[in-house]
Amino acid sequence: MNDKITVGIADMKMAKGSGILITYALGSCIGLCFEDPRLKLGALLHVMLPLNMEAGRKNPLKYADTGIRETLRQMEAQGGLRSRITVKIAGGAKMFEVNGGNLGNIGQRNIESVHTILRKEGIRLLGEYVGGNVARTMLFDVDTGQACIRSYGKQDIVF
Amino acid sequence: MAIHSFDELTSMEIDTLREIGSIGTGNAATALSTMLGKEVRITLPEVRIMGYNEAIEWIGGPEAVTAGVLVKMSGQMNGIMLSCQQLEFVNLVMHSMLGLTVRDYEELDELGKSTLVEVGNIAIATFINALAGLSGISVDLTVPAFAVDMQGAILAVPMAEYGGMSDYLMTIGGNFVCDNKQVPCRLLLSPDIRSLNFLLKKLGVAE
Hints:
The complex is a heterodimer. By secondary structure, chain A is α+β, with helices and mostly antiparallel strands. Chain A is built from 2 helices and 10 strands, in the order βββββαβαββββ. Chain A has a single domain, classed as CATH 3.30.1330.200. Chain A has helices spanning about 65-75, 105-120, and strands spanning about 5, 10-15, 20-25, 30-35, 40-45, 85-90, 125-130, 135-140, 145-150, 155-159. In chain A, strand 4 and strand 5 form a beta hairpin. In chain A, helix 1 packs parallel to helix 2 (about 105-120). The longest helix of chain A has 17 residues, at about 105-120. In chain B, the strands form 3 sheets. In chain B, strands 3, 4, 5, 6 and 10 form a 5-stranded antiparallel sheet that branches. By secondary structure, chain B is α+β, with helices and mostly antiparallel strands. In chain B, strand 3 (about 65-75) and strand 4 (about 80-85) form a beta hairpin. In chain B, about 45% of the residues lie in helices and about 25% in strands. Chain B has one domain: 3-Layer(aba) Sandwich (Chemotaxis protein chec), CATH 3.40.1550.10.
């Protein structure tokens, strides 16, 4: 069994050739598996919020817009080509149903933001398991390009 | 001077918040004690300022499943209050109030869930009432929301809510002790920074 590489919140890890990347308990956050199949170059990004409006921009990986761009930049630095890079996403759930306030909407806003940015950057979205009200743990096998989603009390999903 | 980030809090301010946590949790314990018909005491409450990933390790790992009751605060103070109930605590409540125990969260029926929500809600509301009374702040609470899922995702709710303002999560809260056993039920208060400044000013400790 390979050791898994853990991706934290507002974090991104890359692997080439082989390796399993994992990020735990995506709630309203979104996990994105980037892959350049020709190079077997994969990256897993865990973003928390839709848009970076911070003045200092200390932590680009926290936000969907700056996080996606930073990941693409680092993949390109490794020889990745935008025309080949594909992505699979999971997350964007609504963990609590709260009446009043925009608390529950962060997940939905994250999904919309990720879609918009991927379209703008011209990255193909291969598959997604988003929304709902379940937490998801996402694994990404860089060798096969397969993503797997684990949820509490549910069957694993491979896509 | 008002703080802009949780890591700017002075030790006196942290002591004050710990005291708030102590009084809040203490009041909640009394309420729990009445509901359960058992003596409930508290451990020394903690004030913690943690990075996201640190916070998730602290609460016991991202994938552990927990029952979470969440209440949102508004009015003069904005924030989120969470009650994370682990299975041992769930069973303590189930056993004392309904006379049954469950092996897994999946065995909880509607009545069980609704009992947990109510217990969580009362604990949270008692905590907030104590805080509001002490500082003279009026706080409105939403109706409680309930979820059973991985605690990493539950704890990410206050992080995401205030993530645009801070890279840290601040929690005030403590654990309960019943029958000389620590029962894992954490009450966690996460205020936003502006409310925290207001609270400290009201309490007369802001510099």
